[in-house]
Each structure stands twice: as C-alpha cells, then as structure tokens.
C-alpha cells in the first residue's frame, strides 16, 4: 500500500519508523511518503493560511498551496487516484470497519490541517475527481490533524497482510466484524498465574476451549455494558442468546480476585 501525507510538520511522522509500522515500511508492505505543504507556498514567508471570510476567530488554510501539493502527489502516482482522507472533528467517525475498508485500498492520501481547517473548496475540487472522506478520530479538537493521521495509519497498517505476526490478532480485536462485533475485547492475562496477590481466572487455565470462549464472550458483554453501553444498545437483540442475557443480568464484578479467592470475582475476569 502507498500512503502519502501532506503536512506543514512532516517531521511529526517520525513514529512511523518504529514498531510494526516501521518494520512494514522496511519490508515494503507500506510505502509512506511525506510532503511539505509549504513547498507549494510562493511568498517570502511561505504562508499557507489567511483570515476567514465572514469573520471569526482563527485562520483558514489557503486553497492554493493545498491544490498545488495535491496535484503534485497525483502526478507522481498511477492514473487511478488515491482515496483522500481529511482529518476533521466534523467528519464521520473513524471505526475499525472503516480501517478495514482503507486497508483494502492500494493508495491513500492524508491531508492533515492546522488552524481552523482547509478552505472547503479544496474538498469540493478533489471530491469531483476521487473519493474524499472527512474523518474524525473522536469528539474532541486537536491542535492539528497530524496525530489523527498517525492513529489512522497505525490502525490501517496493522491490518495489511504480513504486518502482524499472528493473522488472527486482528480478527479478535475490539470492534472487529464477526461474532464479537460491537463488543469490546475482554481482559487478557499472561504468566505468571499469580502476581501481587492477583490470580489469573481459573477458567483460563482449564484447557477447556468451549468454556474459555464462553467466558471471554461474557467478559466482553460485561465490559461493553460498563464502558460503552451505546455499543451494546446497537446490538440486534436476536443476536443475544440465553447465556448472553444471563451474563448481562449478573452483577458487574471486579475483573480479578485476590489470590486464594473462592468467590465469583476470581472467575469473572
């Protein structure tokens, strides 16, 4: 996959050289190209913003530099244009399903803005030529869109074939489509079986795969009910069996009990 990013702070993307994404770049799975927006501003100060028409606080990024920068990226690639992604608090929510959709694209172009955003004519201009998505990573405002692009590249990049060591890791993620869709992932544990008085839930040590799967779904249901009740409300009631309903009806118990506990807290994870 090719990913282009146009920004006034291309150095912001140094984290893409490390961890899984850095390895994916080294192996040629992910081709990330960074572009300095100010290279397309031609005044002495390389200005990329101006005051908004109609008044109001803040500055708006000018269409001229953005148009030249995007045109230069388009001219450097294949005839089929990329999918352009504009991070903005007013965009559609970025979800795991959308990350999977982006992971299937051969070419993505990210245009992170600063100030009050990009002149809307830029999205109108390129929306007539290619798919342009305005996307939000959450209901809050950032100083700039670069951090949102980092979030999206990592979420998309880890889904590319060959990036994750275990192909099933992405399948089991929170929000991944499938049997657990719209449920948060439950708690996870590793060795040792007891740490600082906290024991790993006994069911996970049992070797009984059916019971472990049932336990994990119960924990996912309870955690979703506790932390993201709106996701649970969006589930089709017909998708919940009697075991699901029983798990949701039980008290929301602590995720782990102390060593030697014989109560349900030690088994509800």
TrEMBL record:
Q: Which UniProt keywords apply?
A: Cytoplasm, Methyltransferase, S-adenosyl-L-methionine, Transferase, tRNA processing
* Annotated S-adenosyl-L-methionine binding sites: 137-142
Q: Name one Pfam family in it.
A: tRNA_m1G_MT
Q: Does the keyword Transport apply?
A: no
Bias-annotated ranges (Basic and acidic residues): 239-249
Compartments, record wording: Cytoplasm
Tagged with keyword Transferase: yes
Query: Per its UniProt record, what InterPro entries does this chain match?
Result: Alpha/beta_knot_MTases, tRNA_m1G_MeTrfase_C_sf, tRNA_m1G_MeTrfase_TrmD, tRNA_m1G_MTases_N, tRNA_MeTrfase_TRMD/TRM10
What ranges does the record give for the region Disordered, renumbered to this chain? 232-269
Q: What is its main location?
A: cytoplasm
The segment(s) forming the tRNA methyltransferase TRMD/TRM10-type domain are 1-232
Give me the reactions it catalyses: guanosine(37) in tRNA + S-adenosyl-L-methionine = N(1)-methylguanosine(37) in tRNA + S-adenosyl-L-homocysteine + H(+)
EC number(s) from the headed UniProt entry: 2.1.1.228
Q: Which residues cross the membrane?
A: none
Gene3D superfamilies, per the entry: 3.40.1280.10, tRNA(m1g37)methyltransferase, domain 2
Family that this chain belongs to: Belongs to the RNA methyltransferase TrmD family.
Q: Which NCBIfam families match?
A: PRK00026.1 (NF000648), trmD (TIGR00088)
In terms of PANTHER family, this protein maps to: TRNA (GUANINE-N(1)-)-METHYLTRANSFERASE
In UniProt terms, what function does this protein have?
Specifically methylates guanosine-37 in various tRNAs.
Put simply, this protein is called tRNA (guanine-N(1)-)-methyltransferase
Q: Which organism is it from?
A: Streptosporangium oxazolinicum
Organism lineage reads as: Bacteria, Bacillati, Actinomycetota, Actinomycetes, Streptosporangiales
């Amino acid at each position: 996959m090719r990913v282009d990013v146009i920004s006034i702070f291309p150095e912001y993307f140094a984290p893409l050289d490390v961890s899984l994404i850095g390895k994916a770049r080294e192996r040629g799975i992910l081709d990330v190209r960074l572009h300095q927006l100010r290279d397309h501003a031609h005044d002495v100060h390389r200005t990329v913003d101006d005051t908004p028409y109609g008044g109001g606080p803040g500055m708006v990024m000018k269409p001229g530099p953005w148009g030249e920068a995007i045109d230069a990226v388009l001219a450097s690639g294949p005839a089929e244009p990329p999918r352009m992604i504009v991070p903005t608090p007013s965009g559609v929510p970025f979800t795991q399903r959308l990350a999977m959709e982006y992971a299937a694209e051969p070419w993505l172009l990210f245009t992170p803005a600063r100030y009050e955003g990009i002149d809307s004519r830029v999205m109108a201009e390129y929306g007539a030529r290619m798919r342009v998505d305005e996307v939000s990573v959450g209901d809050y405002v950032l100083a700039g869109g670069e951090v949102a692009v980092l979030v999206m590249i990592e979420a998309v990049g880890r889904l590319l074939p060959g990036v994750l060591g275990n192909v099933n890791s992405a399948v089991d993620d929170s929000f991944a489509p499938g049997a657990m869709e719209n449920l948060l992932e439950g708690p996870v544990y590793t060795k040792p079986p007891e740490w600082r008085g906290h024991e790993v839930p006994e069911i996970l040590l049992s070797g009984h795969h059916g019971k472990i799967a049932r336990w994990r779904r119960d924990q996912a249901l309870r955690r979703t009910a506790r932390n993201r009740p709106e996701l649970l409300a969006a589930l089709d009631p017909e998708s919940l069996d009697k075991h699901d309903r029983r798990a949701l009806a039980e008290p929301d118990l602590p995720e782990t009990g102390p060593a030697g506990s014989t109560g349900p807290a030690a088994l509800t994870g």
